[in-house]
């Protein structure tokens, strides 16, 4: 039974990891497959011994923070059912050993306990177990009983219990409280899509992104190690495929541009920014080659542009300032001008005038 339970859980975990790649978007075949196996897991007959020895309960709790809400809700339901089984069997075992002569019954809405006081038994159904006060002596007995039960549950159960005074409360996972801020689990390996061309692109991207951890300084090591290169590689390849289709034909050069910059040994800056999310996967397809260049290369390009602009200004005609010309647009007399011989040598030169105020241009001979 234990082996079958573990195998069933492994199927759930594999399908959940595949469904988590695309975040919390629309439903997918992986999500449906995960929900089907979770339903089988919910119906699987389990007991206290199997849950404690297999430790599947602890591993299943990770899915209660899954990005997909349906998986998260169903996993929480399964965990809650297993918690009830653990508490029920623990309390029954204690009761069978004759602890204070108390009787404990399990209710479907939650764990309940009954306390005998002055020869009368009082029980109350609620989300938590509450022991009624009857007498000072009985109170002491009940407190000892609940503390012992709590100690056993905490040490032996794969689930956490909480004791508030004389109340045993089962922790219920809130399916919608921490989902927005919870990050998806890291992928242990690359996820393939069974397309040889697309899978090759994913492999090359993942190989390049895995190098970032060995290229950054110590102050960025923790931040880089917290990122998932396999997930980022899948997301980048998916974004390129959704926008350009297959990497063939006219789209081949667009794929090559991004792949070259991510794999370039001299472009560690771009590779690091992609992994850290400074360039989100869906925006990478809109980047220009200049934006993908390394910081050092961008500085070099800026110097080249400045030098080219300076040289172009040197080749322009020398202009002089004057107030002898009046602009026909703004009626100002602040102008610059230069003259060029545009006709034969015996003809007068052509004068080009520019208004300093409104940039209006005109010429005359």
TrEMBL record:
Residues 10-89 form the TFIIS N-terminal domain. Transmembrane segments: none annotated. Residues 109-121 have a biased composition (Low complexity). Its main location: nucleus. It comes from the Eukaryota. GO terms for cellular component: nucleus. Residues 323-363 form the TFIIS-type domain. One of its GO terms (biological process) is transcription elongation by RNA polymerase II. InterPro entries: TF_IIS-typ (IPR035100), TFIIS/CRSP70_N_sub (IPR003617), TFIIS/LEDGF_dom_sf (IPR035441), TFIIS_cen_dom (IPR003618), TFIIS_cen_dom_sf (IPR036575), TFIIS_N (IPR017923), TFSII (IPR006289), Znf_TFIIS (IPR001222). PROSITE patterns: TFIIS_CENTRAL, TFIIS_N, ZF_TFIIS_1, ZF_TFIIS_2. This is Transcription elongation factor. It comes from Solanum tuberosum (Potato). The gene is LOC102584918.
């Amino acid at each position: 039974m234990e082996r079958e339970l573990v195998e069933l859980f492994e199927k759930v975990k594999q399908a959940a990891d595949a469904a988590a790649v695309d975040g919390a978007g629309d439903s997918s075949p992986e999500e449906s497959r995960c929900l089907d196996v979770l339903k089988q897991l919910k119906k699987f007959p389990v007991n206290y011994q199997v849950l404690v020895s297999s430790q599947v309960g602890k591993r299943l709790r990770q899915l209660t923070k899954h990005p997909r809400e349906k998986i998260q809700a169903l996993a929480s339901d399964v965990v809650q059912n297993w918690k009830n089984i653990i508490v029920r069997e623990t309390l029954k075992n204690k009761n069978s050993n004759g602890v204070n002569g108390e009787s404990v019954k399990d209710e479907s809405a939650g764990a309940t306990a009954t306390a005998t006081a002055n020869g009368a038994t009082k029980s109350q159904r609620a989300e938590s177990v509450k022991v009624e006060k009857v007498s000072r002596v009985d109170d002491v007995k009940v407190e000892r009983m609940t503390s012992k039960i709590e100690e056993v549950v905490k040490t032996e159960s794969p689930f956490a219990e909480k004791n508030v005074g004389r109340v045993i409360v089962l922790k219920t996972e809130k399916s919608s409280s921490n989902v927005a801020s919870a990050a998806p689990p890291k992928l242990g390996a690359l996820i393939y899509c069974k397309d040889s061309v697309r899978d090759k692109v994913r492999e090359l991207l993942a190989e390049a992104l895995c190098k970032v951890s060995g290229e950054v300084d110590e102050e960025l090591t923790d931040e880089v190690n917290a990122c998932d290169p396999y997930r980022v590689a899948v997301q980048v390849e998916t974004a390129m495929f959704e926008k350009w289709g297959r990497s063939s034909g006219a789209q081949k050069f667009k794929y090559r541009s991004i792949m070259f910059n991510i794999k370039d040994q001299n472009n560690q800056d771009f590779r690091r920014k992609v992994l850290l999310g400074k360039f989100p996967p869906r925006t990478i397809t809109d980047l220009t080659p200049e934006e993908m260049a390394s910081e050092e290369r961008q500085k070099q390009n800026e110097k080249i542009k400045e030098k080219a602009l300076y040289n172009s200004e040197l080749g322009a005609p020398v202009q002089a300032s004057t107030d002898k010309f009046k602009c026909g647009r703004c009626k100002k007399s602040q102008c610059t001008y230069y003259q060029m011989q545009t006709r034969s040598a015996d003809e007068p030169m052509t004068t080009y005038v520019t208004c300093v105020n409104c940039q209006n241009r005109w010429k005359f001979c």
